[in-house]
Write a structure and sequence with these properties.
Blueprint (H helix, E strand, L loop, with lengths): L11 E7 L2 E9 L4 E8 L5 E2 L3 E2 L4 H10 L3 E6 L39 E5 L5 E2 L6 H8 E6 L5 H6 L5 E4 L13 E6 L7 E2 L10 H8 E7 L18 H7 L4 E3 L2 H4 L13 E7 L2
Antiparallel strand pairs: 1-2, 1-6, 2-3, 3-4, 3-5, 7-15, 9-10, 9-11, 11-12, 13-14, 13-15
């Protein structure tokens, strides 16, 4: 992925330490209506840095990250030399900056089974479907229903009298209608809860409900030690398995990385795999 800007050197940094994971995340508001994020494993090269228009409050993006267990550090920026090869913070970084802050508690494992996976091997074989972008993958496997009432989804769909309809993905950008309930159903399980405008803070579009309901996880083949024997043909296991066996190679994407179609959806490229799951 690479690093597209070095503004991370003076921006606020958050870290997550739990299990075998030692990760950092940095965000910077440029002050001109654009922001960028950087991320990676502690002690490794940094990625990110592409500035994008701010479409939701920066505070909400930060709150979402902190909800996942990331803790803000006292020092700013990122110094690869401030960590041991295992990703633990040294007492002093290369520039004399203390890598301070107590590691947060280990993040609880995601409950429930793995849902769906898609990606392309380093040998260019599509797995789980031939999708150009992560958003295409999500649209193919997530259904949104609009209803008058908030009863169980499966019961409403089985009833001839229920006022419920499927909302095409082309309408995910529509405003949430007052007095209506929505179901964001992942993988056709028909067990999604009813949500509306008051279910989440700051939502106004149907796509906001999708963002609050769907989690997208990503893994690069080169980050998984198990791929070393045959990287071109390596395919990771289920989300549940990879979160346990290869926790440090897993990253949960923020919704602005995969949902914003106007900015160009995140493409699925060779060597990357993605999972869709319920947002916890």
């Amino acid at each position: 992925m690479g690093c597209e800007s070095d503004d991370y050197k003076t921006a606020d940094r958050w870290e997550f330490h739990g299990g075998n994971s030692n990760k950092y995340w940095i965000i910077n508001d440029k002050g001109d209506g654009n922001f960028a994020v950087w991320f990676g494993r502690c002690g490794k090269a940094i990625s990110g840095g592409k500035y994008k228009p701010i479409k939701k409050p920066i505070s909400k993006i930060i709150a979402s990250k902190e909800k996942k267990g990331y803790v803000k550090m006292e020092t700013k920026g990122y110094d690869e030399a401030a960590y041991t090869p295992e990703g633990d913070a040294k007492a002093e970084g290369a520039a004399g900056n203390t890598a301070s802050g107590e590691p947060p508690a280990k993040k609880a494992k995601q409950s429930g089974p793995a849902v769906l996976m898609a990606g392309i091997t380093l040998g260019d074989k599509a797995i789980g479907g031939d999708f150009a972008s992560v958003l295409d993958f999500v649209k193919a496997n997530v259904s949104v229903y609009k209803a008058k009432d908030n009863g169980p989804l499966a019961k409403a769909l089985a009833s001839d009298s229920a006022e419920i309809s499927t909302l095409a993905a082309t309408h995910w950008g529509d405003d949430i209608q007052d007095g209506k309930y929505y179901y964001v159903d992942i993988g056709g399980k028909k067990n999604a809860p009813a949500v509306n405008k008051g279910s989440f803070e700051g939502v106004s579009k149907v796509e906001d409900l999708v963002a609050e309901s769907v989690a997208v996880w990503c893994q690069a083949v080169e980050d998984n030690p198990a791929s070393e024997a045959d990287p071109d043909n390596f395919v990771p296991g289920s989300l549940k398995v990879e979160q346990v066996k290869s926790e440090d190679a897993m990253r949960e994407l923020d919704d602005y990385e995969w949902l914003d179609e106007s900015e160009g959806s995140l493409r699925i490229e060779a060597g990357y795999f993605y999972w869709i799951a319920k947002q916890e």
